[in-house]
Design brief:
36% helix; Nucleotidyltransferase, domain 5; 138 residues; alpha/beta; two-stranded parallel sheet
Length: 138
């Protein structure tokens, strides 16, 4: 039995050409590398500036109060009553490795204190207040 022959009597090539597959994989990799930082949006706030070294939120639960006084647990918007009801179970379910509060600098101080009181009432005594680093003029 002779080897496989094509219609013109030439031998058939049974190898898989992966060049185009590799090209597509590299293009997708580049697209994901460009779009991944853009997709890490979050809630837009202008954090207050502090002279001390600011805290950068790591892993844990991030609570945000935006400029209109809306409260976000992660990226989920909540009213104050919803936040009060949901914060305790949410902190326990996440393990509360760290709780960080990001509040816009234009938010009323009383709103921040109310949110901190809910956190303390849920048993979280160590809350990191996130701020931007203050630029020191020399």
């Amino acid at each position: 039995m002779e080897g496989l022959r094509g219609s013109y009597g030439l031998p058939l090539n049974a190898d898989i050409n992966v060049t185009s597959l590799v090209d597509v994989a590299f293009v997708l990799l580049i697209i994901f590398m460009i779009t991944a930082p853009i997709m890490q949006g979050g809630v837009e706030v202008q954090l207050p500036r502090a002279e001390a070294r600011p805290i950068q939120p790591k892993e844990g639960l991030i609570v945000t109060i935006d400029s209109r006084g809306r409260i976000f647990a992660g990226e989920s918007p909540l009213s104050f009553d919803e936040f009060r009801a949901a914060f305790g179970p949410l902190a326990k379910s996440r393990g509360a490795q760290g709780v960080y509060l990001r509040a816009d600098r234009r938010v009323d101080y009383g709103e921040v204190v109310r949110v901190l009181a809910v956190m303390r009432g849920a048993g979280i005594n160590d809350v990191g207040l996130v701020a931007e680093e203050e630029e020191i003029e020399r």
